[in-house]
Amino acid sequence: MNRTMTVPVDTRPTTRPARADLGSGLLETEQVACNLCGESRSRVLFRETYRLGTEAARLHVVRCRRCGLVYVSPRLTFASTGHVYRHDAADTISHGYCWQGERGGSRFRRLLQRLIRMRGDGRLLDVGCGGGQFLAEARRTGNWDLLGIEPHAPAARSARQLADCTVHTGTLQQTPLEPGSFDVVAMLGVLEHLHDPTSTLRRVRELLKPGGVLAVYVPSFDYLRIKDTGWLSRLRTGRHSNLHPQEHLFHFTPRTLATMLTAAGFEPPDLDVGHPFMHGGPAKRTIKKTAYYAARFLRATTGLHLGGLEAVARTTQPPKAPELHSGDPTDAIGGRL
Ligand SMILES: [Zn+2]
């Protein structure tokens, strides 16, 4: 295997169509119920307007009245979100993650050590692998056979070069994979972008071997509420809230993330403070690094979790078949009633 690291080819388009030339019908919205419990009643927390081309969409960040999950409704439809990633990519949060190059790998070392302790060999799948930074760092450990899935074609090409492994272009649901064939599945910065995270997690559960491990990273809503809403948001962006509802369709707290994972067939997750994405200039990177260590210190001393939510969880054991009692009448005919 070629272990020489190569800087990914930056295949970003250098020009993009002027927003006014994009045409109409780009932004369709839909009202949805809670993805976790099915409840349709919710309370509006924040209202934002997203604009693309000459169109605008009113998007609400709401909290489920039954289970407390925070999600976007009305939200952009799956097709309209595709338009956002195609025509407004440079302004999406995913963009910085995809194109941070080799520098992005070191943030995953602590997570990889956790995974090695839990399931340090076999096959590892990275769903939504972006530019391949996690896969490249996992390859350095030499512990797993690697596979990536990434819907953004230029990022998938970059990931193949950076991590030197197979990367399918597409979504998890579009990719044919053998059930029970992976030891570790990673979804880092992915769940919050999905239209149906619960269904996707159930699919991941099917793909894992018994006792396999899922690794998840999502932003912390408790932290985003401080940073991206209220007076701090006004100071930074001039807007009351800046929660990117065009691409972040769900927001998680430690409790709602744990509930969603256990509902999909995983054991209660082991939570840690996730390392932030290290894009931006030296000053921004220093601030992020400082905030990360402050969040770890805060959690260790007070239990308050304000950093990114990094969770690892094993699959639950399948329920055992009920045992037949010796006096059971079905015994006499081999239980074939
Ligand atoms: Zn709910």
Q: In what range is the share of β-strand residues?
A: 15-25%
Strands across the major sheet, in which order? 8-7-6-9-10-13-12
Identify every distinct bound molecule in the structure, by name, code or SMILES: zinc ion
Q: Alpha-carbon distance between the termini?
A: 56 Å
Low-confidence stretches: 1-18, 324-337
What class do helices, strands and sheet pairing give? alpha/beta
Radius of gyration: 21 Å
CATH top level of the domain at 98-218 and 252-314 is Alpha Beta
This entry's quaternary arrangement is single chain
Biggest sheet layout: 7 strands, mixed
Number of strands: 13
Query: How confident overall, as mean pLDDT?
Result: 84
Q: Quote the CATH topology of the domain at 98-218 and 252-314.
A: Rossmann fold
Please identify which CATH superfamily of the domain at 98-218 and 252-314 we are dealing with. Answer: Vaccinia Virus protein VP39
| Total of helices | 10
Shape: globular
What is the helix fraction of residues, given as a range?
Answer: 25-40%
What's the architecture of the domain at 98-218 and 252-314 in CATH terms? Answer: 3-Layer(aba) Sandwich
